[in-house]
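User: Predict the structure for this protein chain, please.
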Amino acid sequence: MDGPEDSTGQPGPADRSHRSSVSSVGARAADVLVYLADDSMVPLAVENLPSLSAHELHRAIREVLQLPDIALDAFALWLVSPLLEVQLKPKHQPYKLGRQWQELLLRFTDAPDDDVAMDEPSLQFRRNVFFPKRRELQIHDKEVLRLLYEEAKGNVLASRYPCDVEDCEALGALVCRVQLGPYQPGQPTACALREKLDSFLPAHLCKRGHGLFAALRGRGAKAGTGEQGLLSAYRRVQEAAGSDGEREASLSPHYRAYLLKCHELPFYGCAFFHGEIDKPAQGFLHRGGRKPVSVAISLDGVHVIDCREKHVLLGLRFQELSWDHTSPEEEESVLWLEFDGDNEGTPVNKLLKIYSKQAELMSSLIEYCIELSQAAEPAASQEAGPTSASGSSPPPHQRPQLRRQGSVVCSRIQHLSTIDYVEEGETIKRVKPKRTTSFFSRQLSLGQGSYTVVQPADSLEQG
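Assistant: Here is the predicted structure, written as structure tokens:
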């Protein structure tokens, strides 16, 4: 591993057991197991495993699965365990990184020593963080679409992609169509769907409470969810044109519909990192503490997600932020995000402090995503049209339908504990008159390098 700039890492869901991707190592040959998004595996018999690169393994997988050339860019190899996820560069050697796994855990996680000693990564074939959504729209190969669909579905069901209830139902209905076939009146019934509800909806929407508190909760925003809402959405799934046999055989339109719906989520295709932020002071004693968050980073920007409440706390495009990080050698490892905001009517710059041993990884990924986005802008503008528009950021004056008031993808700046600063003369002080400069030199260059003020009502509140 050349350094943190060569990987993206984040804590992964603990739904996979500890398992090794290397089943046997001999003097010359080894059997390698590569896991796909649907939890199936591809066994590979390879020579000279210790010196084999991720690019060579990637090519072997594509040959076995008979995937088209687009798969070279759409997918990457990852080393994944319940404690850490790392996307490999083509030049990385998976076997050697696997041997260094405990060192990576000690450097980039807060896991207890016992967990570090027992943890073992698996090799997975997953979506490339740096693959643009606009290129995903150009894919027609059924198997590539299926693999992307399976991964997106797993992230929705695991609540890594927070969704509003109606969007969960729409996505779950497409899963019903893929797994159960076209909707037939009277079958499946709501009772039949209930038996597999957690295959279609995130777990927090499948919980069934009892008694008074459950009844009171049922009056809130989540009322009407579950099998009835899912069944109604299932009825509305549109079938592609063609004969009955063709429609039954081809699932590609439904894979594509699922992915297009996921493209509306601002954090689709992100790498996820674990961190903590300060809670706002509450009560007479001003008690605060910290809350766990996921930091989702992609080519589109940065999103901070509340792990417990399953909603976005802050969403920023790269044009809307400056950032930096402090290393453990200086103090506690922290990623700083700076953005423009408002404090009681006064324009201010807000600083959000994210505590994480992966701050260095996040900072490097932000920098690399900005470089890629800037390089891709000319090509993207040439390709822009009715089809690719849904894969790019909407114009600032348009309010995307998904980012409606109260949506889980809206920023909730009022739930953040930030440090607010302004410029007064030649000094920078807390919450004073307007300032237009930035603490940090690390930001997306705009025009002559000036820092563009973000309008909270138009940008931040949309996530």
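Residues 69 and 193 are 38 Å apart (CA to CA).
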